[in-house]
Amino acid sequence: MGGDLIITGGVPLNGTVRIPAAKNSVLPLLAASLLCSGTVRLLAVPQLADVDASLVLLRGAGCTARWQGSDITVQSMPSVCRLVPEAAAQMRASILFCAPLLARLGRVETVLPGGCRIGARPIDLHLSGLTQMGAHCCEEGTRLILTAPAGLRGADITLGFPSVGATETLLLAAVCAQGETVLRGAAREPEIVDLAAFLNRCGGCVQGAGTGTVRVQGRRVLYGCSFAPMADRIVASTLACACAAAGGRVELTGCAPAVYAPLLEILAQMGCGIETGPESAVIVRSGALHGAGRVFTGVYPALATDAAPLLAAAMLCADSVSSIEDVVFERRFACADGFAAFGADVQVQQRTLHIRPVRQLQGAEAAAPDLRGGAALVIAALAARGRSRIADTGHIDRGYACFVQMLAELGAQIEREMPCGSTCEKKTPSKKQI
């Protein structure tokens, strides 16, 4: 969508938001649809830039993929073994489309995947696992060519790190391979459980998803199904941190608090009131926000790496020091320069962001450096006094659908200023919300 975000901060957030489906679940599910002989229907999918890029990849492979209202239907008959380079280079998740095409066609060509520049994100775990399953890998500059002349076969694979992407790639390869695959050291994230549930609904046999050891009995053909992806725990985390930073009372529904519990626990330690139910959480911040001390991200079930910049934005408003270290990506805090523009006292040392208290954040101009860092700058702007402008919002649009509307319905004074004199997408609170 693009355009700058114009935000007048200092307004508490109040209201209820139903959390949309998770981008980090939808993208691997769209890749998995390549394995299915019948129609796949994903329900209530958010309209995100990365979702549109995924549809380009599916259509480029010869499939029919289209929106039907808020749902997406895919009829998978892949005939082209080359992923559209422009779409593949746009996002990290394009690597997930390789294993299904390799399983169906025996060959796939792509470019090395793109995405946010938050640090090294190698695909060696993906490739070494596929090699153990019978694939041949060849890199020619930025091109990657995978072949499986004898088909994929089950293997006993141990991941050196519980990579979410590698776990998803190898599940997608194993579910249609010959024989059994045992994946040890697997990622345990809820999105892995969601992918396994989808594959099983389509006729696959995946056991142990959500634990460190996953077993897959290969099947030759999967059929289609209708499936509702899980709610987006990172969007929920974003809104929880926005409430903590700006103040107010926000209820988040449709997303189990258990999947982002570490973030809620830290916000509670910082002085927020937190009430949780099976599928909802209420965040209240009416008094002072306190520093969190030293905080670390980690693999699930620890604090999610994607939540690190969001939580850091809330920490900017605390009355004592905090530090947050991301153990996954070395450049997770590219948003630090933007924080400093708001008057925050921040310092990055290697993978750690150190935050000292300031009297008040001030409105400023800043540019989104990446997806979650851009959302963190929006949170800072909501807490700052005065008017702010956030540029390079295309990063934010990759992971947040209707972000302006979502925040405005909570009372935020926010609008999107489109380039070249286009009409603003204005969203201000209604009298009822005030």
From TrEMBL:
* Span of the signal peptide: none
Q: Which reaction does it catalyse?
A: phosphoenolpyruvate + UDP-N-acetyl-alpha-D-glucosamine = UDP-N-acetyl-3-O-(1-carboxyvinyl)-alpha-D-glucosamine + phosphate
What pathway annotation does it carry? Cell wall biogenesis; peptidoglycan biosynthesis
Keyword match Cell wall biogenesis/degradation: yes
Q: Which NCBIfam families match?
A: PRK09369.1
Source organism per entry reads: Faecalibacterium wellingii
From the Swiss-Prot or TrEMBL record, give the protein name: UDP-N-acetylglucosamine 1-carboxyvinyltransferase
The Enolpyruvate transferase domain, residue ranges: 8-407
Q: Which UniProt keywords apply?
A: Cell cycle, Cell division, Cell shape, Cell wall biogenesis/degradation, Cytoplasm, Peptidoglycan synthesis, Transferase
Q: What is its EC number?
A: 2.5.1.7
Q: Which GO terms describe its molecular function?
A: UDP-N-acetylglucosamine 1-carboxyvinyltransferase activity
State the top-level EC class.
transferase
Q: Which family does it belong to?
A: Belongs to the EPSP synthase family. MurA subfamily.
- Asked if the keyword NAD belongs to this entry, the reply reads no
> Where found?
Cytoplasm
Q: Which Pfam families match?
A: EPSP_synthase
